[in-house]
Amino acid sequence: MSVWRDSPRLLARLWRRDKLSFFGVVLLVVLVLLGLFGAYLPLGDPTKIGTGPRLFAPSWHLPFGTDELGRSFLPRVVQGIRSTFLISAIAVVITAVIGTLLGMLSGYFRGASDQLIARGADILFAFPALLLGLLIAAVMGPGEISVVAVISVATLPLFIRVVRSVTLGVAGRGFVTSAEVAGASSWRVMFVHILPNIMGAVVVQLSYALSIGMIIESALSFLGLGVQPPDASLGSLLRQGSAYLTIAPWLVLSSGAVLSAAIMSVNLVGDAVRDALEPLKGRSLT
């Protein structure tokens, strides 16, 4: 049985039963499409100053109002969606590649390599993400590259732990032993026999790492260490709006609501994928 062949059918069945998960999927798709193609929609220029009065309340023509420079806030929120998703996704993909490789090496070879990788993950896990952000920003300077590095380092230890755990369970299975007896190399065993059987756990952890990455990106941008003006992310928009919270609360409410919706949708999709792959536990995919 193949995860990729059976997962769509299982997910579709789950979504028909779970309306909340279905809502999360629809919301995530809408936000991702809005972030990808929002620049081509007639929403206005996110950097154009004087589109309307300064700190103008939401109206029919300016649904999210304007900021302190008179810029329409709706296109800036759309730009923020793209920045937050893109930065978090790039960082999490890097984490997934490195974490999956290290986790499989640790769980399959065990011994000294297992101790080295596991202890290294424990050391990284001990550092708070914000402290890492301050250290990396001090070395590399604030900006998107620093945020990607912080997210990757912060989410890597848990990714390694999850992959190592499931690899330990799969490495002792009969089909792995048969491949080893047949003379298959260690790399072939890992990538042909073990990797397909742990992809379910990798995909689920990937979705949760994405939500964590969005939280970290928003926190760092809120502190001024992430996306720099005139570009915007949801975190930097929250920082911008917090200065005018008492006179223009719509700046914080709009960007905060969108950020909350994005994180919630990613978590709901992760729950849906986990529940859909649950029946596949303990079954060989090769």
TrEMBL record:
The keyword NAD does not apply. One of its GO terms (cellular component) is plasma membrane. It is found in: Cell membrane. It comes from the Bacteria. It is a multi-pass membrane protein. Its main location: membrane. One of its GO terms (biological process) is transmembrane transport. InterPro entries: BP-dependent_transpt_permease, MetI-like, MetI-like_sf. The chain crosses the membrane at residues 20-41, 85-109, 121-139, 145-163, 198-227, 247-269. Residues 81-270 form the ABC transmembrane type-1 domain. The keyword Membrane applies. SUPFAM superfamilies: MetI-like. Keywords: Cell membrane, Membrane, Transmembrane, Transmembrane helix, Transport. Belongs to the binding-protein-dependent transport system permease family. This is Glutathione ABC transporter permease GsiD. It comes from Hypericibacter terrae. The lineage of its organism: Bacteria, Pseudomonadati, Pseudomonadota, Alphaproteobacteria, Rhodospirillales.
